[in-house]
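RECORD CONTENTS
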Amino acid sequence: MEKQKKKLQKKAATLVEALPYMRKYNGEIFVIKYGGHAMGDEKLSRQFAEDITLLRQVGISPVIVHGGGPQIGEMLSRLSIESEFIDGLRVTTKATVEVAEMVLCGSVCKSIVADINSVGGRAIGLSGKDSHLVTARKVNRTKPDPDSNLEKAIDLGFVGEPAIIDPTILKQSIANGIIPVVSPIALGEDGHTYNINADTMAGAIAGALDARRFVLLTDVPGVLDKDGDMLMELTAEDIATLRAEGTISGGMIPKVETCLNALQQGVRGAVILDGRVKHAILLEIFTERGAGTLIRGQAPA
């Protein structure tokens, strides 16, 4: 009996700790990029849906932008469509982008929507194509040519990046208590369909919505120091120093750059968070310590 009482008191204490954060973030928009291993795990997927639904019920307006690289790769393999990679980037042919749209806008997006709706939320699936939400432009990359020492253009096919964002449809959904779930597919001004990196699209949408927080769910705990310990808070100046000394390197570089770009567009705080941790989003938002690495902007996060 005493053990049960202490357990209940601990739950009550957790709610009390969360209360000021509920007040602080009431009415604010949080853009959350969802992907990685957490998205492919049935138990974690349901917990994510529960967390997102809870955010909406306590007055926070979540907007989800999802990835789906592994699911696209699996479908391409099943269809015997070979993928070519250049410097780690998938060359997206017309056939590949058609498969990407089918997988992202169909299977992946609708699965997330169904999970949220099944736990009492109200979600709607969208893509960049809907209501001119995102207009894409083709990504142009170059690499040094070893023969001439000049920069050589790389054609990645139908790989795009956000050029123009019209968040009207997202704002209308939010105003009606609906949680938007956005697939990173968009039309270009040239009329072609483009596949966009989900991190990049989520950061751009966060900026367009003037979001209070941009949450980047990943497969790592956050930004780590040289000893492998997580850094709880960083500024742009801290990140520049860590990059210069090589502490931030590899795949973490584009993630922090996405966060910094979102902050430059007016987002007040960006978080790199491990999506594999149970209720990671709630721990980050509603506890003093948080659960990931918070990158602060100029205004209070």
The chain has a mean pLDDT of 87.
